[in-house]
Amino acid sequence: MKRIITFVAVIVVCIAVMAGTSPTLLSKMKLGLDLKGGFEILYQAQPMVPGGKITKESLNQTAASLEKRANKLGTSEPEVSTEGADRIRLKLAGVKNEDEVRKTIQKPAVLTFRSKDGKEKSADQYNKIELNGTDFTENGATYHIDEFNKYYVVIIKVKDKSKLAEISKRLFGKNLAIYLDETLLSAPTVRAELTDGTASISGEYTREAAQELRDTINLGALPLKLTEKYSQSVGATLGKLSLDQTLRAGIIGSLIILIFMISVYRIPGLVASFTLIVYTWMLIAFFYFAGVTLTLPGIAAFILGIGMAVDANIITDERIKEELRSGKSILSAVKAGSRTSFRTVMDAHVTTFIAAAVMYGLGTGPVKGFAFVLMLDLIVSIITNIFFSRYLLHLLVKANIIKSPKMLGVKESEIRAL
Amino acid sequence: MRFNWNFDYVKASKYFYTASIILTIVGIICLAVFKLNYGVDFRAGSNVDVKTSINLSKEQIEKVLVDTQLNQKDVHITPGEGRVNIRFPEVLSPTQEATLKGALKGLDAKASPEVNTVDPEIAKELQRNAIYSVLLASLGIIAYVTIRFEWRFAVASIVALLHDAFMVITVFSIFRLEVNLTFIIAVLTIVGYSINDTVVIFDRVRENMRFAKVKNLSDLKTVVNQSIAQTMTRSINTVFTVFIASVCLLIFGSESIRMFSLAMVIGLLFGAYSSIFIASPLWYALKGLNKDVKPNAPKSTV
């Protein structure tokens, strides 16, 4: 009796948790462009100046400035990632004026140092351009900690010493503002006449802030030119239709699988069906926590995962049937069946996991995405389809709910006497 | 219902070997002569898929292309129920793309176009990357299976895995089915499924080897045949369920993953087939090479 109560309680809690969280999880599910529409561009970066080199910092900085711009254009959650040594992938959803966005984003970031020309409307506005990004020595900016070991100082270096000397003399005691495009980054005050072509900027910077400023200035000195290597735009309606159709197909397929499992394996089939639902829910929850964006390759891995999850249940349930047919009692058949099938299922899962892990380590783009979802699949499958499924079945058997082999899908006539 | 699956799988395997070898040779010739029917992902150009509320004719689209001066040579227009596909061999510039979209809206205000522009280098790179990944993943599988089972199981399962992946590629080459990026993902999925499926049967062979007294080749054959027979119901039920899921995707799923679903369906069947008729007999053949088949099973398990 106690076991029946435990069983019912576990089921009820599971259903309650799933019902309570599913709407939130589903609505927060991040969908890839192939499902929700938008566009994706793969840029190849090249230095503007011939002979210039692309550094990891400059590429990251370019990617960061792409993201900032995309954000400003009012697109929802732009995704920017660097790939390899010289590529940046940009994904944007819900863009209406696509052409405008494409044009604006592709322009290189412009770094300027500015002073006031007297026509400014607010205190933190500077109009007169004193120095351009290209006035700085390539990769000349550095940073170090100040003499009090408290804040960081950024050192800049210009190509033309006399120009900096003239500016610093003229603007002595005034502000020299640093701009990236039209965004004011910092407005340090000129405190000395700078004659050796270098200047140190101190503004109570943290290490991160100093590093960012250094990278911005270095990138400004050596801007990267971006060319579109690949672009894909997906009409939102088409994306929505794809998703609806795929979801419907998935639901129909799942229903057939559940009906099949219950009709062939009876009680264990019912348990398997329940754990398959828990599996799907848990996988979606994992997607949510791992911040996975669901794309078509992800769905492919998901389907494969369902296949392997069903397989895990089939292997166990078949094994139990076999043990029953050989004449074992229900309890010992379930115990022996679960034990022997455990190793099989684990080996199959671990082997596939290794393959997925290698693909994840080596793959790029969709291959990596596929492998990641596959690894999640396998982990969740082990939790739900091996451990949880076994736990539920054992509870039922020990509670004496399963009284005849029929309830396990085995006919009396098939049982051999021991 | 319960069938008796006892059958001499090992003996029958020579026919299946022959069939698979012939298919592989046909596949190699086909790939060498016809290559794969690469979709726009692998060819320079632009592919425009338009979902429309009214059915547009080929002539209407042609007129639009002439009007917008987008009538490149060899433009393929495929009209369909509620959708039109236009393929340009030359990449459309963003301006041209916008012009085209505008002109299509003139024909059907509700037209929703999907434009794919690709530098084939990217797709080829991804294909190479996928091939390397699968090959190195195979090494990982070999290492694990060798430790957990023995090297013969590892070799046999890798042969089956590569066989399945190659068969799907062959079928796509023979029937000139379009290969796009999603196809690569489908092949990866099949690789995952194939290894999973093979390991389950091998696990049973290993288990039976522990209790069987194998003195000669015929005993060994019995063990393999029995193991396949014992796992047959499971194999069929598993293939059936995964097959159903894939067929549902093929029938009810979206147009854009149709080729993917088809590759999955074909791959699943080959995956099940190779585990039973290729991998297991191959293990038997490898094991049989070992002249004095040991009276007891190797202590490969813990």
TrEMBL record, chain A:
The SecDF P1 head subdomain domain, residue ranges: 127-223
Domain Protein export membrane protein SecD/SecF C-terminal residues, every copy: 229-397
Keywords recorded for this protein, A-Z: Cell membrane, Membrane, Protein transport, Translocation, Transmembrane, Transmembrane helix, Transport
Transmembrane segments: 247-265, 345-363, 369-393
A Pfam cross-reference name: SecD_1st
Annotated membrane topology: Multi-pass membrane protein
Record domain Protein translocase subunit SecDF P1: where: 60-117
Gene3D superfamilies reported for this sequence: 3.30.70.3220, Multidrug efflux transporter AcrB transmembrane domain
Keyword flag tRNA processing: no
Localization annotation: Cell membrane
Biological role: Part of the Sec protein translocase complex. Interacts with the SecYEG preprotein conducting channel. SecDF uses the proton motive force (PMF) to complete protein translocation after the ATP-dependent function of SecA.
Quaternary context: Forms a complex with SecF. Part of the essential Sec protein translocation apparatus which comprises SecA, SecYEG and auxiliary proteins SecDF. Other proteins may also be involved.
Family the entry assigns: Belongs to the SecD/SecF family. SecD subfamily.
Protein name (record): Protein translocase subunit SecD
Species the sequence originates in: Paenibacillus shirakamiensis
From TrEMBL, chain B:
Protein export membrane protein SecD/SecF C-terminal domain sequence ranges: 105-287
Record's keyword annotation contains Nucleotide-binding: no
InterPro entries reported in the protein's UniProt record: SecD/SecF_arch_bac, SecD/SecF_bac, SecD/SecF_CS, SecD_SecF_C, SecD_SecF_C_bact, SecF_bac
Pfam families: Sec_GG, SecD_SecF_C
SUPFAM superfamilies: Multidrug efflux transporter AcrB transmembrane domain
Transmembrane stretches, start-end: 15-34, 154-175, 181-202, 236-254, 260-286
Highest taxon in the source lineage: Bacteria
Keyword vocabulary terms for this entry: Cell membrane, Membrane, Protein transport, Translocation, Transmembrane, Transmembrane helix, Transport
Location(s) in or outside the cell: Cell membrane
Gene3D superfamilies registered for this protein in UniProt: Multidrug efflux transporter AcrB transmembrane domain
Topological type in the membrane: Multi-pass membrane protein
Keyword Electron transport: no
Family according to the record: Belongs to the SecD/SecF family. SecF subfamily.
HAMAP family associated with the record: SecF_B
Function: Part of the Sec protein translocase complex. Interacts with the SecYEG preprotein conducting channel. SecDF uses the proton motive force (PMF) to complete protein translocation after the ATP-dependent function of SecA.
Annotated PANTHER family: PROTEIN TRANSLOCASE SUBUNIT SECF (PTHR30081:SF8), PROTEIN-EXPORT MEMBRANE PROTEIN SEC (PTHR30081)
Complex formation: Forms a complex with SecD. Part of the essential Sec protein translocation apparatus which comprises SecA, SecYEG and auxiliary proteins SecDF. Other proteins may also be involved.
Name of the protein in its database record: Protein-export membrane protein SecF
The organism of origin for this protein: Paenibacillus shirakamiensis
